[in-house]
């Protein structure tokens, strides 16, 4: 069993769109603040006149939904692309948890010493432990698995119009610098008689963003996961984010944003469908 990102097998049912690696910096207004960390505001929209078959009255997919068949890109335990260490973390006892926090705290203390601080002064005394706990929260997505996230929210539904949930606010950590990047993700899909509860789209974005990431991979993982779970006619994911590693250091362009997208199925093949999605996302 392998727990790493399997980008080495691009031939498996996923074909990159022409735009999927488009990464561009677009000067815009200053980045959004990091307030409301814990809420995931979303604004769902559906295409064309609202279907009488509202998603909210969809009936649960038989009891089969409980045994969600996990396809190739998603590991058997539903964790989806974790490293081996994340499995240890998931299964550890309370005592092992505190040992982990203590170990991170020690490391942070070392960092404080290395930058020339006194880790024993009043203001910093509890910082290592605080940081250790915060870091565990920032990376809590490693302990979540797609099975639990999705489980009872798959519905059989005769709905084949585009579903878009846009502006899902996410907070992630850049794996190259361990500093945050924050932004908004918009997800669209065209069902193939199977829909997912709308809030679950945001939960999936949350699960993958609360791991060490690069924006391109985050965008792609969300798209591929949805594509495999829903077997829809298409999936589109667009993310616009501001990276503190760019804003605070290096090139120091405070207003620059990075946009990534990943399109599958009809969004990839049909420019009109893609345009319709992008119009939703922009407005
Ligand atoms: Zn970075």
Automatic annotation (TrEMBL):
<keyword id="KW-0378">Hydrolase</keyword>
<keyword id="KW-0547">Nucleotide-binding</keyword>
<dbReference type="GO" id="GO:0005525">
    <property type="term" value="F:GTP binding"/>
</dbReference>
<dbReference type="InterPro" id="IPR018234">
    <property type="entry name" value="GTP_CycHdrlase_I_CS"/>
</dbReference>
<dbReference type="GO" id="GO:0005737">
    <property type="term" value="C:cytoplasm"/>
</dbReference>
<dbReference type="InterPro" id="IPR043134">
    <property type="entry name" value="GTP-CH-I_N"/>
</dbReference>
<dbReference type="GO" id="GO:0003934">
    <property type="term" value="F:GTP cyclohydrolase I activity"/>
</dbReference>
<feature type="domain" description="GTP cyclohydrolase I">
    <location>
        <begin position="105"/>
        <end position="281"/>
    </location>
</feature>
<feature type="compositionally biased region" description="Polar residues">
    <location>
        <begin position="14"/>
        <end position="36"/>
    </location>
</feature>
<dbReference type="Pfam" id="PF01227">
    <property type="entry name" value="GTP_cyclohydroI"/>
</dbReference>
<dbReference type="InterPro" id="IPR043133">
    <property type="entry name" value="GTP-CH-I_C/QueF"/>
</dbReference>
<comment type="function">
    <text>GTP cyclohydrolase 1 is the first enzyme in the biosynthetic pathway leading to folic acid.</text>
</comment>
<comment type="similarity">
    <text>Belongs to the GTP cyclohydrolase I family.</text>
</comment>
<comment type="pathway">
    <text>Cofactor biosynthesis; 7,8-dihydroneopterin triphosphate biosynthesis; 7,8-dihydroneopterin triphosphate from GTP: step 1/1.</text>
</comment>
<keyword id="KW-0289">Folate biosynthesis</keyword>
<protein>
    <recommendedName>
        <fullName>GTP cyclohydrolase 1</fullName>
        <ecNumber>3.5.4.16</ecNumber>
    </recommendedName>
</protein>
<dbReference type="GO" id="GO:0006729">
    <property type="term" value="P:tetrahydrobiopterin biosynthetic process"/>
</dbReference>
<feature type="region of interest" description="Disordered">
    <location>
        <begin position="1"/>
        <end position="52"/>
    </location>
</feature>
<keyword id="KW-0342">GTP-binding</keyword>
<dbReference type="InterPro" id="IPR020602">
    <property type="entry name" value="GTP_CycHdrlase_I_dom"/>
</dbReference>
<dbReference type="GO" id="GO:0046656">
    <property type="term" value="P:folic acid biosynthetic process"/>
</dbReference>
<dbReference type="GO" id="GO:0008270">
    <property type="term" value="F:zinc ion binding"/>
</dbReference>
<dbReference type="InterPro" id="IPR001474">
    <property type="entry name" value="GTP_CycHdrlase_I"/>
</dbReference>
<dbReference type="GO" id="GO:0046654">
    <property type="term" value="P:tetrahydrofolate biosynthetic process"/>
</dbReference>
């Amino acid at each position: 069993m392998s727990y790493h990102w399997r980008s080495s097998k691009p031939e498996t049912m996923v074909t990159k769109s022409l735009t999927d690696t488009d990464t561009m910096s677009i000067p815009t207004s200053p980045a959004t603040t990091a307030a409301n960390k814990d809420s995931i505001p979303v604004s769902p929209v559906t295409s064309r006149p609202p279907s009488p078959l509202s998603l909210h009255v969809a009936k649960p997919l038989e009891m089969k939904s409980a045994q969600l068949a996990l396809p190739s890109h998603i590991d058997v335990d539903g964790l989806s692309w974790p490293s081996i260490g994340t499995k240890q973390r998931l299964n550890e006892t309370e005592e092992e948890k505190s040992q982990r926090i203590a170990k991170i705290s020690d490391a942070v203390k070392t960092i404080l010493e290395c930058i020339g601080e006194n880790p024993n002064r009043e203001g910093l005394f509890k910082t290592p432990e605080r940081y250790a706990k915060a870091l565990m929260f920032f990376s809590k997505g490693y302990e979540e698995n797609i099975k639990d996230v999705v489980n009872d929210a798959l519905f059989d539904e005769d709905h084949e119009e585009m579903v878009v949930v846009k502006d899902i606010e996410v907070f992630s950590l850049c794996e190259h610098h361990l500093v945050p990047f924050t932004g908004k993700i918009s997800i669209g899909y065209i069902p193939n008689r199977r829909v997912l509860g709308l809030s679950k789209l945001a939960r999936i974005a949350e699960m993958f963003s609360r791991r060490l990431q690069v924006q391109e991979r985050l965008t792609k993982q969300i798209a591929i996961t949805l594509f495999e779970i829903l077997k829809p006619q298409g999936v589109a994911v667009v993310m616009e984010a501001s990276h503190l590693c760019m804003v605070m250091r290096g090139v120091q362009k405070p207003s620059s944003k990075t946009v990534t997208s990943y399109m599958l199925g009809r969004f990839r093949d049909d420019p009109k469908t893609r345009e319709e999605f992008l119009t939703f996302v922009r407005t």
